[in-house]
Input
Amino acid sequence: MEIKLTYAETLSREPRKWISTLVIVLICVLLFSWSGSALQSNSTGGSGLSVAKGIISGILHPTPSLLLTLGDDGVPYLLFETVAIAFLGTLVGAVLSIPFAFLGASNIVPKPVALVIRLMVMAIRTIPAFVYGLMFIMVTGPGAFAGLLTMSTCSIGMLSKMFTESIEELDRGILESLDASGCNTFDKIRYGILPQLMPSFSSTLIYRFDMNLRDASVLGLVGAGGIGSPLMFAMNSYRWNDVGAILLGLIILVLIVEWVSNRLRTKLMRG
Output
């Protein structure tokens, strides 16, 4: 005999979760209050407002000579150097990440070996890009080469992790089918592994290049090449028109790269 319960009876039989929800809300409120106690608000004063006005005025009235000059001190050359650092850093980091990715995949190598490799990659990923930049500047001196080494090292941490996850998600049924049809190792790599990995690898590389472009712009502040160093010098000298020209060029570059990368990732996802 089927017993039909009313809506009120159904609700009464459901587990009551309001106590756990209340506890979670109280914990979140306490954490928020504790975090807010560490914040200190300092008055910006007239100097802070004047700096903000100077930056806005500089963006609205950039220096035309910096935007149109093709020399070493022009915005186009500095943006090209920044893109080159980000691109080569992504490429070198990707090449170095592939061995780490395969050695860190537990479905290919023994689990102890995969654990050791993952710990190494995790250690690489924990160090901020600024620290790497300062380290390489002490070794190679300031310049674009220090930025390239920094971007490559930072890319290894992320790309190795993402590549490893893609390798562990391989469909082994395809490899078993190729093996049953008599394919050799090269054929299995060519027709079974690469078609599965290339879309994921390519999408990850495009996303990492997008991140490296922004990081390369900031790393110039510590002397690692790119457009960050001229931006810092212009701000320290209160040359707001030059600051506006550099920021305007950087905004245009980021928007173009963002549009291109989104189109490429969309095509890769759609096959």
